[in-house]
Amino acid sequence: MQTEPSSNPPLDDLIWLARELGSVQRGLVVLNEGNVSARLDDKRFLVKSSGACMGELTSADVTECITGEMVRVLEMPMLDTGALERMIRDAQADRTARAASQESPFHAWLLTLPGVNFVAHCHPDAILQIVCSQAAERFAEHRMFPDEVDFVGSQAVYVPYADAGTPLAREIRSKLQLTQRRAQSRTPKLILLQNHGAIAIGPTARAVLGTMLMAEKAARVFIGASRLGGPLFLPPQYVARLEGRANEGPRASTIKL
Which CATH architecture has domain 10-249? Predict the structure, then answer.
């Protein structure tokens, strides 16, 4: 899905994205679940502070971090909780500011990918049902309807379960790099985490929200179709053609969320 660049500051778009994801009406987040981040430039990014509520996010709930220092956490030996928290705080632009999310390392790495300016992670109900089931990989690999291809892509990256923090960040990096090599460096839009939730990545806050909303709709369709004898997946040639159209045309860029 292509979207026009926003003229808003990244902080404003990040707060908008968090509140949309955290809206009770959306049904994507409960309590203080989830986190979001935004790229400022090659060296800095913004991320939701630890413990902040997505649906009520303000500028006081956002922490600025140094991208390179946060990515460096992935290269360190396995860290205990205290050491990880210290390294994350050391990677903040202001160490006295509110602590950044413990999942900041994977946000930092994802924001270094081509075309990725925003990242959202949450635990939507329908998606969570699937990634907690034996059907998770089938859902990640196949598509059922055209809009799913437009907004989510031809397939999602599926990441086996890993503990939050450094183990999860490393697993995300490993699986996504493997997928990019197979897809000739194309950056995916959706990452599904076994027994955990989903991550949407993209060029704008609206693109990321669109991916998460359509992925959750697809999850509901998948669950419903499974009760009616099983989903009918689109043949690969149609998925490829639909994805080509989505990458070429302005249709998705005109969608207002």
Answer: 3-Layer(aba) Sandwich (3.40)
